[in-house]
Input
Amino acid sequence: MTQRAFKYRFYPTPEQETLLRRTIGCTRLVYNRALAARTEAWYERQERVGYVESSALLTTWKKENGLEFLNEVSCVPLQQGLRHLQKAFGNFWAGRAKYPTFKKKRNGGSAEFTKSGFKFKDGQVFLAKSSDALNIRWSRFLPEGAEPSTITVKLSPAGRWTVSLLVDIEIEPLPESPNKIGIDLGITSLVALSTGEKVANPKGFKAKRRKLRKAQKALSRKVKGSNNRYKARLKVAKVHGEISDARQDFLHKLTTRLVRENQTIAVEDLAVKNMVKNRKLSQSISDASWGELVRQLEYKCDWYGRSFVKIDRWFPSSKRCGHCGHVVEKLPLNIREWDCPKCGTTHDRDVNAANNILAAGLAVSVCGANVRPDKQ
Output
C-alpha cells in the first residue's frame, strides 16, 4: 500500500470560512507559543521540551484568561500543530533543516485533521465543529473503496482554499520499458536527455515578472494597515500563485512523461542550496526548480516500479568525453559545444553530459561502481 494525497479546491460557506480561519489562527498561535516556550526553556535553563511537555502546556493555556477561545475549535489541529513542531525540531537536530521559525498570518496557514476530527460519508467531507459538508470541486474521484486517513485544509496567501485527502491505495506498476535515459539539468534547456532531446525551460517567473513588478510597486505605495494595502497584497500573492501553478503543472507533465517512457532514469545529485548562492544565476536556478523536478521523478519512479539513480555530484559529466573518456581541465559555461583534444569528437555540452550521466547511473545500479573523478 502507498500513501497518496489528492488535492482539491473547495469553496466554504461564510460560517465554514469563519470557523476554518479561527481554527488556522489557533493552530498558528499554539505552534508559535510552543516554539517560544521550547526556545526559552533551552536558552535560559538548558531544558529540552518535547511533544509531551508541549501538550501539557496546551492544556494549561486553554485555562488561561484571554485564551479560552482555544476551546471553541477542534483540538485535533492544535495537537497536530505540536506534532509538526516536534518533527521540525527532529529535522533540525538531524541537520536536515534550519531552526524552526514562527508562522505568520500573511502566509495563510493550514489545519490538519486526523480521523477523530472529520467524517467521510457518501463521498462528502464533514469537519469537526461544522454540520455542513465542504463544497469540494471533485476534479478527479478518489479510488474506489479508498477512505482518507488525514485531511489537511490550507489557505493560500492569495485567499484560495484547498483540501488534501491522504489515502492508502495500491498503485499498479507500469509495463516494463526497454528505454533508459540520463538527464542533464540546465537553465536554457530545463533538461537535456541522452537521446538528444532537449526540453526548453518555460521560465515561469520571467513570464510574469513584469506583472509581478507592477503589483509590487502598487503595494509599496499603500499605507501600512490600510484596507487598500490588504487588497494590493492579495494581488501580489495571486501573481505568485499563478507562477507556482504554471511551474507545477509543467513539471508534473514532464516528469510523468519521462517515467512512463523509460525504465531507468539517471540524474545528478545537485547541491541546489549551494548553487543559488551565485548572484548571477540564483534567480534562474530557483525558477528552474531542479529540486522539485528531481523529487517528482524519485517518488513517481517508486510508485510505478521504475529505477531511479542519483550519481555523485562531483562526477565530471560535462567535461568528460563520452567517446574516449578524456576529461578536460576547464569548460566555462559559455561553451556549449566542444571538441575532444584527444579523439577529436565534437560534443554538444548538455547531450554529452546526459550520456555520461546515463553511463555512470547504469554502472552504479549494476555493480555499485564509484563514479567520482579519477585521482591524478
Q: What stands out?
A: The chain has two domains: 2-169, 180-367. The first helix runs from residue 14 to 45.
